[in-house]
Each structure stands twice: as structure tokens, then as C-alpha cells.
Amino acid sequence: MTRVWAGIGAAVVLAGLPIAASLPRAPHPPAAVYVDAGPATRDPASPDGQPVATPTGSSVAKSTGSPTASPIAASVSSSVSSSVSSSPTSSPTAEPVQSVTIALTGDVLIHDTVWQAAHRAALRAHEHTAFDFRPMLAPIRPIISGADLAICHLETPVAERGGPYSSYPVFGVPEEIAPALAWTGYDACSTASNHSVDQGYDGVVRTLDVLDRAGLAHTGTYRSPAEAGTPAILDVAGVRVGWLSYTFGTNGIPVEKPWSVNRIDPDRILRDARAAREQGADAVLVALHWGDEYSHDPSAYQLDVARRLTQSPDITLVYGHHAHVTQPSRRVNGTWVVYGLGNLIADQHDVAPGTMDGRVVTITLTRSATGVTVTGLESTPTHIDVLPGGDFRVRPGS
User: Fold this and answer.
1) For residues 68 and 28, what is the distance between their CA atoms, to the nearest angstrom?
2) Are 363 and 105 in contact (CB under 8 A)?
3) How far apart, in whole angstroms, are the C-alpha atoms of residue 317 and residue 281?
4) CB of 130 within 8 A of CB of 115?
5) pLDDT at position 8
6) According to the model, what pLDDT value does residue 96 have?
7) Count of Cβ atoms closer than 10 Å to residue 66 Cβ
8) pTM of the entire structure?
9) Residues of the chain with pLDDT under 70
10) For a Cys-Cys bond, which of 204, 338, 349, 367 suits 98, CB 3.0-4.6 Å?
11) Which residues in 313-341 are b (16+ Cβ under 10 Å) and which e?
């Protein structure tokens, strides 16, 4: 069976108050179809000499059709977003081509300066909540909501409602980040990271409960062995996307319940990908929290794991985060590997160069007679601006 997030599309709760009216889900327009991966350059450092995606510097193209406010449901029984379908004119009996777009972004790393800015935003807007993260995410909302499926990575666990909150090195962040991500247009957030157990097992449970209330699907951390053993499959306009998430470690913090956090183990990942296929997944995306922090170059460990995973026909795409700077996208064994997406929102401006940069990688999955494959990959750079007064804005552009 697959996991179903029944709360998706329902009213979300922020600081104990229903706010469905003030935080509507962003609409999902129909997908645009990309017939190839766009401009590419050959990279001699690529493990198999395949082209490297060249960032376009612009957001994903969108259809001009009327948007539909239909969120993603993590169920193989329902299709909730529009898709682009067409039949080749040369063969009236050919299978229709169905394409969907998936937007992927990097670390949501809520430092104390970030949540303090969200608190000031809530006070200015006279919100009935302590934190409002929407203003800092608003500039990227059109890009995120324009994809059929949008996936973020929530690196930091949430604290108890009302706090106390904590920042680096042991995080516990305001739960209001979750409904703000849903408002931005995200449908799902992976949760396996080196900070997954910063708040212990209770923090794992609390974080997933908060994501449920916000209508966000999740994978990578779990509340029970049954949940951990059930593949996450997201139905995107009839394309069933298996979704896996793993981390390299937990900063030396013991994991009370080993099944509650997925650790990177290539053999285990290959088994999980096969299981997702057996449960009906048309494609499988693997999210890895990996790499050397602040390095734009993939590590030897990343290269080795990528080579092993991309040998499997069960895995459609591998993508990663954790380095807090962007890393390249390359084809390995014919499969796209997006090594690092950078930071979506964080405050590491004085830590290392490039830490205020990220990217939205939007892939196009197309169904044909031979199966579902990646037929497009577009990269949109993003930057975190620090505004006067210490506020933050995540905007498209470098």
C-alpha cells in the first residue's frame, strides 16, 4: 500500500488558529512540456562524460491556461493536477504523451535571525500568530506554484508550539514555517537530515504532525515502523512518483528509534526503489542529504553513491542538499543527478561564499510507450536577500 495524506487541501492550523482563508494553497497551472534538457555543456569532470545542465536564469515556462486550485494527493487512487497531453499527428493510434513538472529546492534552514524576521512580519501585519514566513517566500511563489508537484527539504525539526526555539547547532524552529511553505505552493517536504533528531524522537513526531496539518506530504523520517516501511508515492495527474529521502548522519546524536530516520545505504536505497516500483510507482526520485558543506564540487562519496544508484533502472533521478551551496547537475549512467540545490531559506551570509544562493530545479517527466522518463531539466537560480532591518527575501536570480 502507499501512504495517503488525507489532510492535503484541508484547513491548516497556525498557532492554534484555523487560517485556511489567510493561507490559501497556491494554484497549480497546467504543466509546460520540455522536449529535451535544454542547453548543455560537456564537463570533462563528469563521471561518464555526459553534459552538465546549464542554468537558464529564468523561471519555468508555464501554460497560459486557467489555473486550477488542486493540490497533490499522495495516493495512487486520485489525480489532482492538470497535465499536458498530446498525440502524435502522424499516428492516430499512438499512445498519448503525458508530461508533468516537478520543482525541487534545497534546504529550509531556519536560523534564529530568520524566525525573528518572521516574527516582525507577523507584528507588522497584525497577524493572529507569532510568525509569518510568507513575505520572505512570496517572490518565488509563482515559480513553485507553477509546477504540478513542488518538493522542499525541511532540514530543521519544529519545536513545541510557543517554544522555546533554538538555532545552530541544535535546531528547534517555529511550526509556522510549514503552512507558509504550503502557501508558497509546496506539496511535500523531505525530512531526512543531519538535524532530524535535534529535538529527539518527539521532535520527529511533532514535525510530521505539523506537516500533516499543513497538508504537506513527507518522507525520510517516520513515526512508526509501519510508516517507515510504506513507500511514499505521489499521484501527479496520473503519473505515480515514488519518493525516497535519506541522510548521511545525524551529527553524532543517537537515534532513539533507528527506523525513524533513513540513513544513506546504497543497497537499502536500491531495495526501496524496487519496492516503490512494485507498489506501482512510474518513476522514483531519490533525495539525499549529503556532501561536504560549502563545497561546490561533489565529494568522492557523492560521486560513488551516485554511480551505484544510477546503475539501477528503478531510479529516475537523484537530487541532493546539505552542502548549503549549489552543486552541478550531471548525467551519470544516463540518469540525471542534481548534486546540490543550495539553500532555499537560511542565514549563513557570514559563514561561506555562496550560502545565500540556491536554485529551483524543475524536471519534466513524460510518459510514453516505453515508460516515464525525464525529458527536461531547467534550473532557476535563487538568492536570499538581507534587507534593511534584518528582514529576508528569497527571490529568483543570482
Assistant:
1) 6
2) no
3) 13
4) no
5) 29
6) 53
7) 9
8) 0.80
9) 1-97
10) 367
11) ebbbbbbbbbbbbbbbbbbbbebbbbbbb
